Amino acid sequence: MRYRVLRPTSVIVVLLITLGIAVNFFDARQKARNILGFNDVDEREPTIETGQFNHVSATTGALEPKCRLSRVCPPDHFSVQIRSGAANVVGPRICFEGKIIMSHVMNNVGQGLNIVVINGENGDVEQSSFLNMIHGNPEEILALLKEIKPGMIVLAASFDSVTPKMTNEIREVFAGMGSALIKSVKHRDSWVFVGRAGTKETSPYEKQAVNDEKTNIYEGWPEVVEVGGCYPRNITDGHKL
User: Fold this and answer.
1) Contact (CB, 8 A) for 152 and 120
2) pLDDT given for residue 139 in this prediction
3) Please, are residues 9 and 67 in contact by the beta-carbon 8 Å criterion?
4) Beta-carbon contacts of residue 193 (< 8 Å; ≥ 6 apart)
5) CA–CA distance from 177 to each of 153, 155, 203, 220 (Å)?
6) How confident is the model at residue 63, as a pLDDT?
7) Residue 213 C-alpha from the chain's centroid
């Protein structure tokens, strides 16, 4: 049996090609993570478990914006930021008052609708869960949504698809919270929403990206959508709390 001996120049060429492939692989992987919004920043930001919610500048002592907002919200408003899931790969991210309530990193999101229910007066998190709109029971999902009391603030974000188990009754519940887009949400659309149960006012905190093969940036899914801002507290006896 003969063994072929590689020349030094051939060995160098092989090593360079291998190194180039490895660099390109990790570069592509990082670009994908950045596009999908899944990066180390999420891991460093406070979560509801850590209790680390200090938003005061260490140098100036001034209040700093929460949930990556561009400004500090007034006392009668809550800081909110919601980002939908990316395709069926990276889950959504829901931040309220500087606390990450749900995220891919926290491993507490799921396919369908990811929802956080907030006490509209004191800002307490009453509930956080995901409604399985792929394999769940529509009647059970509707019953859970109907249990949300008037005045509660509802934060919702899609992941993968929200329509397989979506019924007209479920759409009406969200419309009753101020959603103007829920009736047009279709298969694999990206959708985020902040509203209030029992309101008749249309919420300005809602966004939708339509699933269209001509404009989709992921194969079979549209872009990620995001909303954020200062959401008003409940009004009680004519005064905001």
Assistant:
1) yes
2) 97
3) no
4) 82, 154, 155, 156, 157, 174, 177, 179, 181, 182, 203, 205, 206, 227
5) 9, 10, 8, 29
6) 84
7) 22
Residue with tokens 């007209």: 168
Q: How far is CA 180 from the centre of its chain?
A: 19
- Token output for 21: 């492939």
Look up tokens 């919420």; give the residue: 203
Say which residue the tokens 């909303």 belong to.
227
Q: What percent of the chain has pLDDT over 70?
A: 72
Continuous H helices in the chain? 8-35, 40-44, 138-146, 168-175
Q: Which structure tokens are listed for 131? A: 């409604």
Indicate the helix (H) or strand (E) that contains 91.
none
Q: pLDDT digits over 4-61, tens only? A: 544 555 545 444 444 443 434 344 334 335 544 444 344 445 555 444 444 665 565 5
Q: Give the C-alpha distances (Å, rounded to integers) separating 226 from 21, 68, 72, 215.
A: 34, 12, 18, 17
Tens of pLDDT, residue by residue over 146-168, are 999 999 999 999 999 999 999 99
Q: Residues in the chain, how many?
A: 241
**3-state DSSP percent of the chain in helix, strand and coil, to 5:** 20, 25, 50
Mean pLDDT estimate for the chain: 82
**Phi-psi bin for 50: left (phi > 0), alpha (psi -120 to 50), beta?**
alpha
The whole-number pLDDT of residue 146 equals 97
Rounded to two decimals, what is the model's pTM? 0.77
* In 9-124, beta strands by DSSP E: 77-83, 93-96, 99-102, 112-118
Please tell me the distance from the alpha carbon of residue 30 to that of residue 235, in angstroms, as a whole number.
45
Residue 163 tokens read as 């329509």
